[in-house]
Write a structure and sequence with these properties.
- The structure is a single chain.
- This protein is an alpha+beta fold.
- The protein folds into 3 domains: 75 residues, MutS, DNA mismatch repair protein, domain I, CATH 3.40.1170.60; 144 residues, 5' to 3' exonuclease, C-terminal subdomain (DNA polymerase, domain 1, Orthogonal Bundle); 144 residues, Dna Ligase, domain 1.
- It is built from 14 helices and 12 strands.
- The strands form 3 sheets. A 5-stranded mixed beta sheet has the order 5-6-1-7-8. It has a 4-stranded antiparallel beta sheet with strand order 9-12-10-11, with helices on one face. Strands 3-2-4 form a 3-stranded mixed beta sheet, sandwiched between helices.
- A hairpin with a 6-residue loop joins strand 2 and strand 3.
- Helix 4 packs antiparallel against helix 5 and helix 10 packs antiparallel against helix 11.
- The longest helix is centred in the middle third of the chain and has 21 residues.
- Keywords: DNA damage, DNA repair, SOS mutagenesis, SOS response.
- It comes from Paraglaciecola agarilytica NO2.
Length: 421
């Protein structure tokens, strides 16, 4: 059996954890640079103002009219509360797979004995424990396959009568739920695939479940066949206990404000270089080459400008100093006076496993592993950029615009909630 634990409106719910004054108000969270809506709480959705990826400026007056609370994306807070939620859920199963920032699968084995309290009571206990300890509202769906666990979670959220908990442990309940689900609401069935299925008369999840898997494979793919088999209780999805290391690592972001100065662009690139270097060391890899780019906006009236620079290291490295050092030579190619830069980024390519890489006898590495480890440990304990490269600068005018940012209650000393008795 599998259980899927999924937080309701994760970002918006995180904003309410430490701010009781907004718990009964519509809350909307914006994307990077406060551009579009990326999350909305249930109250906002019921008021019709929580449509995803609508530009904020277009609905600003509508949001003001209903008294909506606007928040910039507080990724530091969301990541920390997500980890707390996952740690809490993990106590209720022998195995866990974190699927995304707001959901995880719990695995109980191929033929587990039902818990003494019953599956529904267990699901309810998970839900109540996460609410009590983390203050995040979640829904829990339990089924014999990952896809049916997803279906059960959908029912727990959206089908009347389930109230946050659903268990698909009988044929009757499975038929009842699948008959009420559109085919595009099934995990892995997108809009385009849904249109093709609709053309064959498959409009609900129940109709899809009753199709011949072999025939579905011929007409579509093995992925859709696996979905059909999972809807019928046959486990086809698995997850790796150890995720494969990334083959490329990028850090890119548009600026909060356009930048035109040489030093500002150099600092922005150094900031991205520091970010990718930390990620590189975290997966214990070395990079043999890197790419950098800087660009203006294609919508600017001054004309579009884009430049990139490729660099190959003599000896693969994961030392931040070596990666940042490349920026100085790249700036000659990337910077042009008068350009209003909108975005820049750094990418590490041709990655190698640090433990398996064979160094050249005549080209020794100049990486300082102890220094990098010391930096990473300090920043992990006291917060990002506690120790940083000087090239990154201290007044970052290029930083992401977050005008409605809430405090980082759990990851920043100055933002720790203060209680006065």
């Amino acid at each position: 059996m599998f259980a899927l634990c999924d937080a309701n409106s994760m970002y918006a719910s995180c904003e309410k954890v430490f701010d009781p004054s907004i718990r009964n108000k519509p809350v909307v969270v914006l994307t990077n640079n406060d551009g579009c809506i990326c999350a909305a709480c249930g109250i906002a959705k019921r008021l019709g103002v929580g449509k995803k990826f609508v530009p904020y400026f277009q609905v600003k007056k509508e949001l003001e009219a209903v008294g909506a609370v606007i928040r910039s994306s507080n990724y530091e807070l969301y990541a920390d509360l997500s980890q707390r939620m996952m740690d809490t859920c993990a106590r209720f199963a022998p195995d866990i797979n974190v699927y995304s920032i707001d959901e995880c699968f719990l695995y109980y084995g191929k033929e587990p004995l039902p818990p003494q309290e019953g599956w529904a009571t267990l699901a309810s206990r998970i839900r109540k424990t996460v609410w009590r300890e983390v203050r995040l509202p979640i829904c829990v769906g339990i089924g014999p396959t990952p896809t049916l666990a997803k279906v059960a979670n959908h029912a727990a959220k959206k089908v009347e009568g389930f109230k946050g908990v659903s268990v698909l442990d009988t044929q009757a309940i499975r038929k009842e739920v699948l008959s009420q689900m559109g085919v595009t609401e099934v995990w892995g069935i997108g809009k385009r695939l849904g249109l093709r299925l609709n053309a064959l008369g498959i409009n609900t999840a129940w109709q899809l479940a009753n199709r011949d898997p072999s025939q579905i494979r011929k007409e579509f793919s093995i992925i859709v066949e696996n979905t059909v088999r999972e809807l019928n209780g046959e486990v086809r999805h698995t997850w790796d206990s150890v995720r494969a290391a990334k083959k490329e690592i990028y850090s890119t972001r548009s600026f909060g404000n356009r930048i035109t100065e040489f030093n500002e662009l150099r600092s922005a690139l150094a900031s991205h270089a520091e970010t990718v270097a930390v990620k590189l060391r975290k997966q214990k890899s070395l990079t043999a080459s890197m790419t950098l780019f800087a660009t203006s906006s294609p919508h600017d009236t001054e004309g579009y400008f884009r430049r990139s620079h490729f660099h190959r290291f003599t000896v693969p490295t994961n030392d931040t100093r070596n990666i940042v050092k490349v920026i100085e030579s790249a700036m000659v190619q990337l910077y042009q006076s008068g350009v209003r830069y909108y975005k820049c980024g750094v990418g590490l390519l041709d990655l190698h496993d640090e433990g398996l890489f064979q160094y050249d006898l005549f080209s020794p590495s100049n990486d300082n592993a102890k220094l990098m480890s010391c930096m990473d440990n300090i920043n992990a304990r006291y917060g990002r950029s506690t120790v940083q490269m000087a090239a990154k600068g201290f007044e970052q005018k290029f930083a992401m615009r977050r005008e409605f940012l809430s405090p980082q209650y759990t990851t920043k000393w100055s933002d720790i909630p203060k209680i006065k008795c």
